Amino acid sequence: MISPPSASSMATVPHLMQTPPVVGGALPVTDGSFVEFSRDVLGTLLRLHQKHGPIAALRDGTQKIVFLFDPAYNRQVLSDAKTYHARFFGIRGPKRSSQRRLTCGLLAMNGDQHRRNRRMVKEPFGMRQIAHYDDAILRFAEETTASWSDGQAVDVNEEMTRHMLRVTSGLLFGLDDNDLAYVVGEQIAEWVGMNHELGVGALVPNDEFSDRYEELLAYSEKLEKNVMELIRLRRADPKPSFDVLSILVRMHDAEGGLSDEELVGQACVLFGAAHMTTAHSFTWTLFLLAQHPSVMRRVWGAIEDGTIDREGENGEMALIDRVIKESMRVLPASGYSQRINNEPVRLGPFELMRGTPIVFTPIITHKLESTFENPRLFDPDRWLTTKPSGYEYHPFGGGPRLCIGGPLAMKILRTTLPRFLSEWRFTVEPGSDVTAEVRSTMLNPKNGVRMRLNKHAEAGPTFTASPIRGNIDLLADLPEAPEAPAA
Ligand code: HEM
């Protein structure tokens, strides 16, 4: 049956995803606090869309953040990198500081510098290069499954984060099971989080801001030392390697390509961009499959008969790709991204002064009924017929700044998931709290996702959805899950 949204979540956050029109001549503006926005991104996005429709602004004093919900606005902004600049890091720190160097990665660059760096950084992510990663990806999957025991209860998000830290340090830095890589991964997650909280705080007068600013500068020094040490370890290893850092270093040495400063910034951003987004995508996909036993049974059958990653006779998308695309539609790991206009612009009903933050979000755009029928339903087969544009469906962003690691992330997911699922049954722990929140721009499970792992060899391939608590019903229908008893 269809689990109704909980009364408490409905009281504060709208549930439907129709796009109402802009009403009358009034500007679609809500007065509020940016600090509150940074504390409840998901609720704010849902409320603004519900109230204002395709485009909205949150106003705090004299400042505005503009939110785009409609694919036409996404197209206007994302395709025009000249007018709309990326600003992933609001705080660059003093010149020659660690903070300045660490925020030097691709996500923070614009104009010619972005084009030049993107050309170089994208080299290791081409289809030809990532073909080299197949064996390593499978080996990491084997190691992770070997670490599980039958009947074990785990937080799957923690498991997937650990898994992706290993995969990322292996593929990006060529370092197998390196303790320092774990430390760096955790530090990057913390540092990105501090940047986002403070980045929003910096837009408006806020007492907390100055203390935490000093804390951020000190933290970035610690992180930079460790990223430099990873680079040093990589350089010290004489064996020829296809990991991303080796390719970048080789290009650096052969062409004088990336400066050391750029290398630190790129390494840090690549590591952060790769492991957290992909770990959350793993988690959400395993969660959605577990809560949809009818889909899971088909996936299991296709793994058994070897067709899981095979296109259909008429070129239909392989089942594993349908599952991943659909999971990234319903619960996209990247919750929102941001641009600023570097000249005054007219955007829909707004005349925006230079430097206005502009947010776009797949969380809302992926749920528009005008593009996707029953948008909150997890229905992998919709991908047999639906063909949304890159501005209607944009889990990896769009336009000239499209994610360069998208094909690698897809390869990791489509190679690893069948390996996990062939041996293990993932069942959500009944009664557990599955709450989505947007933190550091990513949609992640606030309290993890508690799941029990059982070996098919012991338990047989039976699949059951579980009653759960939390706010996930705001984003996903779980029609196969029994209702949770009232708390
Ligand atoms: C499922 C996994 C992933 C998701 C959902 C994801 C999502 C995104 C999104 C939405 C953007 C665009 C941000 C914007 O427009 O402001 C982006 C950019 C980027 N991503 Fe990913 N990403 C993933 C995996 C990866 C991986 C594996 C890597 C590298 C190893 C990576 C590296 C990058 C880089 C360097 C950019 C900046 C591109 C530019 O500005 O030119 N991502 N990603």
Automatic annotation (TrEMBL):
InterPro entries: Cyt_P450, Cyt_P450_CS, Cyt_P450_E_grp-I, Cyt_P450_sf, Cytochrome_P450_monoxygenase
GO molecular function: heme binding; iron ion binding; monooxygenase activity; oxidoreductase activity, acting on paired donors, with incorporation or reduction of molecular oxygen
Class of the enzyme per the UniProt entry, highest EC level: oxidoreductase
Cofactor: heme
Keywords for the protein's UniProt record, in alphabetical order: Heme, Iron, Metal-binding, Monooxygenase, Oxidoreductase
Pfam family, one: p450
Database matches in Gene3D superfamilies: Cytochrome P450
Positions bound to heme: C403
EC number: 1.14.15.32
Recorded family membership: Belongs to the cytochrome P450 family.
Protein name: Pentalenene oxygenase
Gene: ptlI
